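Box 3.1. Reading complex inputs
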Amino acid sequence: MNTPMKQQPKHKTWNQIRPLFKNGMSLMVGGFGGVGNPPTLIRTILEEQIEDISVICNDAGFPDIGIGQLVSEKKVASLYTSHIGSNPNAGRQMTEGTLDVHFFPQGTLAEKIRAGGVGLGGVFVDVGVGNEFVEKDKQTVVINEKTYLVEPSLTADVSIVYAKKADSFGNLIYDTSARNTNPLVAMAGNITIAEVEEIVPLGELDPEEVVTSGVFVDHIVVSEGVDWSWAWEKK
Amino acid sequence: MGMGKEIRHKIAERAAQEIEAGMVVNLGIGIPTLVANYVRDLPVMFHAENGILGTGPSPEEGKENPNLCNAGGFPITASPGSSYFDSGVAFAIVRRGLLDMTIMGALEVSERGDLANWIVPGKRVPGMGGALELAQKAKKVVILMNHVGKDGKPKIVKQCSLPLTAEACVHLVITDMAVVAVEKDGLVLKEVFEPYSVEEVKENTGASFVRIDKLVKEGNRL
């Protein structure tokens, strides 16, 4: 019997992955409004007191939720995002000049990440053509008589994602809308770490149902769950 | 939005009448979210830009799945026939023009249908989220808002003073006072809600109407 992944080399302890996080790193984070942000990985980055991080994430979460925790603790130097409206700390730091925020339309940001993940140099997007805020400092290109903005792709030193299950090769399946940007982010990291609810043996996941191929995943850690209350929860 | 709960629901109920069987519809945050409550047994697929087509009603308290939320971050359910996908696909649906309607709020709408709803420079800079894609690419853009701002100034204007989300994209505006359509030649007053008169709607609108619909009666109930 051929069992190539018997050693489960990708399954790591929390202490094993701590050295992967470094000051000044670029960090891509899966999730949307806190949902699908990997909670224990974010807590670990806080515990390691990593600073000066360049974050790429759909949004800035909420002050005490998900990626918002890194912003609130002033660990983020620059942020590539589409929305920070739910985290007043991000707005305050932007106004004070301590957080450098780069806004992109949400779907454009997703495609920039996807482009990085699939090995492209960028994408051409017509959303925001003629909009001075979106067009600022962007190249344009005309294809079939239509004008597009040139949006360079994004990759990161480290990508962190949240998934429901991984097998020991790192194949991932997600939970409902916690999928959101995670499959895109998983492909775009030079190192990708998946925080998962459960690791199952090889063969347990139906290949038809795998969303992210394990080839994109370098390390797998088992989640300790969220350490925040959701905005909708009764306090 | 600074309006009574009852009015918010009435605007949502009126907006629901715009939705037809078989449509694919995106609902924004705030009053637009309430619209789903008034689309009774119509087969409609609600789109959420985080990666769901076919969102269903809010779950019972205690039965929430914290991972299953709409784009506003509130727990929802998935209707029969729904699908989950990543955010890239969620916006593929938008950019490919597969949204029949998007219902959102606004800061200003101009007489040619320009929409400003994402930034107040120097005051409120939350980022555009998915507003640009939705406004630019949906087949029909329906705006739900107060007829006038907190300062009493009209929000339907000749020309937007705030940075635009998208140009000439709005088709219909439903407010606490009236229903206004943006047509090729300009604004058309379609309905006036009690207790307002046509004259009051005109006074509180910063652009003129090219037509007042024949069917407009003062004192229509919202």
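In summary: Chain B has a mean pLDDT of 94.
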